[in-house]
Specification:
Largest sheet: 7 strands, mixed
Low-confidence stretches: none
Oligomer: single chain
Strand content: 15-25%
CATH architecture of the largest domain: Beta Barrel
Distance between the termini: 30 Å
Length: about 350
């Protein structure tokens, strides 16, 4: 193993996982080939422990590494296949009655309320079909739609349709974007074609994060902050950009400063430095030195939680958590290795 891979072990793991994802999109999922390669990887790892003589074991030391990396490649392929299978929607373009759950609070649009929902069931005269897809519903704007919150369960009569590619190779592929975000499609639902039937009490981290962020947004409103000031403050502190006026978005986009409005590593870094300064008094005591890293990591993840657990915030939170933990265990933190580690976990879970 080279000195580079010794210092950055997660680089190889990240490359292997990403290779598995790309191979799936290139070749698809072939069960027989997948099973054979899994057996090959396991055999290589087992053989690496079977050599008793040190010189032979050293000569074939590459068996363990190759077998392990092959299994990581196959893991990337399998995880992608599982996610693609979950996203398969057999009722594309068909009218039906669906039982859906609101994933987050609705977003107000000029003529509708955008609702990201999870499709739970499709109900027809034959029976009920369980679903595991997500969809974007545009409910006609009225007072009832505006009162919906994350966790509400609705019955809707809709035709969920996957957007078709525009045919222009230079145009943004909205259909591909929706699929990769896990959405089966979109549908417009008039006021007479939906009804609230309950509220889900099932525990959901994302729903709880959305409620926490909404609570803080309500505090901003009660303090009299509104208009562009509310949009800027909510975007900069909580990562909530839906309140930004189109003109304000265009201004930031034109100047190339749109990234400032996205809660990212810069914001998490500032929060990390502030927390480190606020709790510097804990360094005076032996117990305080041990508790300080735990407190900082906990508060970092609380901030990631209330900002909606976006990928950029998750990446930064993982990186800073690794930095803090490496200091706890007396190890020198490697920034690049932290980047590869966070990228590996984000690719795996997303």
């Amino acid at each position: 193993m080279s000195d580079f891979t010794k210092r950055l072990p997660f680089f190889l793991l990240l490359v292997a996982l990403a290779s598995g994802i790309l191979l799936y999109h290139w070749l698809g999922f072939r069960e027989v080939l997948f099973g054979a390669l899994v057996c090959l990887g396991v055999v290589a790892i087992v053989l690496s422990f079977c050599f008793r003589r040190p010189e032979i074991s050293y000569r074939f030391r590459w068996l363990f590494g190759c077998g392990f990396l092959l299994l990581i490649v196959l893991l990337g392929c399998f995880v992608t296949h599982r996610n693609e299978t979950k996203q398969h929607f057999p009722f594309d373009g068909q009218q039906g009655v669906y039982r859906v759950e609101m994933l987050e609070n609705p977003i107000e649009k000029p003529r509708s309320m955008l609702c990201r929902v999870r499709l739970l069931q499709r109900i027809d005269s034959v029976g009920t079909v369980s679903l595991h897809n997500k969809a974007i519903l545009y409910l006609a704007k009225d007072s009832l739609a505006a009162q919906l919150v994350a966790g509400d369960v609705l019955l809707v009569s809709a035709t969920v349709t996957q957007p078709r590619p525009s045919g222009n190779p230079e145009a943004f592929d909205y259909s591909l974007y929706l699929r990769r975000q896990g959405f089966a499609g979109t549908s417009f639902v008039s006021a007479q074609r939906w009804q609230k039937v309950g509220h889900s009490e099932k525990f959901s981290i994302l729903a709880m994060a959305d409620k926490s962020r909404q609570y803080l947004l309500d505090i901003y409103t009660k303090l009299g902050i509104d208009g562009d000031e509310f949009g800027m403050l909510s975007a900069l502190t909580l990562g909530y950009k839906d309140a930004l006026a189109p003109e304000l978005r265009e201004s930031f986009s034109t100047t190339g400063a749109m990234h400032v409005l996205a809660v990212s590593g810069l914001h998490v870094g500032i929060i990390f430095v502030v927390f480190g300064f606020l709790f510097s008094f804990m360094d005076r005591w032996r117990l305080g030195k041990r508790l300080k890293p735990i407190v900082i990591i906990f508060l970092l993840w609380c901030y990631a939680f209330i900002t909606g657990l976006s990928p950029s915030v998750l990446r930064s939170s993982v990186m800073f958590s690794c930095m803090v933990l490496s200091g706890v265990f007396g190890r020198k933190s490697n920034t690049y290795n932290n980047i590869f580690l966070s990228a590996f976990f984000l690719l795996f879970f997303n």
